[in-house]
Task: structure prediction
Amino acid sequence: MGAWHLATLPRGERAAAADEYAKLLGKGAKKSEGFPTPAQIGETIVKNLSEPFYDRGPNDKGVGIQLAHSLARVGLGYLLAMLLAVRSASSIGMSP
Result:
């Protein structure tokens, strides 16, 4: 953790033409310099887990909703496989 923290320390702020260009496009001027710091990872984890069931449109769902959809798909696949397997095993078992 210490090496990660030291490797991701900021190397000094510098304004660049790219920052002004980003502002003109309506994007934030703050640009990532590569690997996130441990504090940034912690903030993101807390933010994602503090409201797990939010729904802000078709492409912005909370981690709880995504987990529920994933588990439902796995359960449906298992149920269909089980129904097919039991049916085919019964047919195979009944044949001489």
User: Anything to note?
Assistant: DSSP finds four helices and no strands in the chain.
